[in-house]
Amino acid sequence: MSRSSIPPTDGSPVPARESSWQKAGTGELVIGGRKIKPGETQEILLKISEFYTSNPVNIPLTVIRGHEPGPSVFLTAAIHGDELNGVEIVRSVIQELDHNKINGTLLCLPVVNRFGFLTHSRYLPDRRDLNRHFPGEPRGSSADRIAAIIFMQVVANADYGMDFHTAAVGRTNLPHLRADLSRREVRRLARAFGTEVIVDKPGSPQSLRAASVAAGVPAILYEGGETFRFQRRNIRKGIAGSYNVLAALGMLPIPPKEPKLQVIVKKTEWVRAERGGILDLIAQPGELVYEHEELAVIENPFGREVSTVVAPFTGLVLGTTTRPMVSPGDAICHLAKLDRTLATVEKHLYITASGRRRIPVDV
User: Rounded CA gap, 183 and 103, in Å?
Assistant: First the structure.
């Protein structure tokens, strides 16, 4: 695939593509040189690069193809190698489903960035962020080449996609979904997934999600938790959301699970420290805060307050820092602005033991 043939990522029109569902009757599905027939599950080591020793760098791809035709869906995790909740979400789907339980096809990549996964790093060895290089370029940088292989072997064989993430290192996120709701099929997936909060944004232009959507493969991104950990509540939420989407697509014969509330937000903003010091964080993910409400206090080592951090607008706390030390400009609290959805959120709030206002998160 040459650069000129790579789909645009700027939202411009995409040529119509024949979906793998439309081609399902032919029985032809070939990935990494392996042919997967209806009624088969295959474990494939997909080569994405080579080590200095000339040995192949492979990533594990499980293809589950049902007996009956249906959509093809990719599930990807650990594009950032230190974000582990998604690894367990995708592994759980692989372990719990097989070709006798689904219609259509699942393309499951629990560890996309093998380099970062092995070295406990977000990045590739050259410090590039793989999720800023899709759809890739076969003759480009190492990141471009890896992205191109994944895009051509996996995304090109899919009709829909789900990508799983956590917050970056030193932060934590409320489980929520990110999706470009201006796209009808993306909106359908996002609502079906079942998170309480959906952030309506297209994503970075060369992210896997945005590049997939631009190529005609509707995709959504799940965010939940923090790096370097398996957090069971966030994992259960991701698994349940995956099954909800598969049910909505007619691939799993199960009833969907709907959240108690679901709000769509368009504006989010990181509230940052104006002074350096030791952080006493008050607000937590999932809480409702009102404009000018205190989010955190920054103190010096002697215990004297040097700064108070307040909410610039009324919103939901999507994420926070996990570090108790801050410098000027450090991100402290990620707020999602609530306007017309405020009344809906207030209706469903519960009060914690410490008196904080929190939305219910079903897991």
Answer: 24
CA distances from 213 to 57, 143, 180, 270 (A): 27, 20, 9, 26
CA pair distance 67, 351, nearest whole angstrom: 48
**Average pLDDT, rounded, for the chain:** 93
Helix axis angle, 85-96 relative to 232-248, nearest 10°? Answer: 50
- Yes or no: say if 248 and 162 are a contact pair by the CB < 8 Å rule: no
The residue type of 218 is P
203: tokens are 């994503």
pLDDT at residue number 22: 44
Query: Which value, in Å, is the radius of gyration of the alpha carbons in the chain?
Result: 21
CB 84 within 8 A of CB 166: yes
Contacts of 83 (CB under 8 A, 6+ apart): 77, 122, 164, 165, 166, 227
pLDDT tens across 177-221, in order?
Answer: 999 999 999 999 999 999 999 999 999 999 999 999 999 999 999
pLDDT in tens, 256-300: 999 999 999 999 999 999 999 999 999 999 999 999 999 999 999
In this model, does residue 9 exceed pLDDT 50?
no
What pLDDT, on a 0 to 100 scale, did the predictor assign at position 23? Answer: 45
92 contact partners, CB below 8 Å, separation of at least 6: 235, 239
2 to 10, 132, 153, 321: CA distances (angstroms): 18, 18, 15, 41
Domains, the chain, ranges and CATH? 3-248 (3.40.630.10), 266-358 (2.40.50.100)
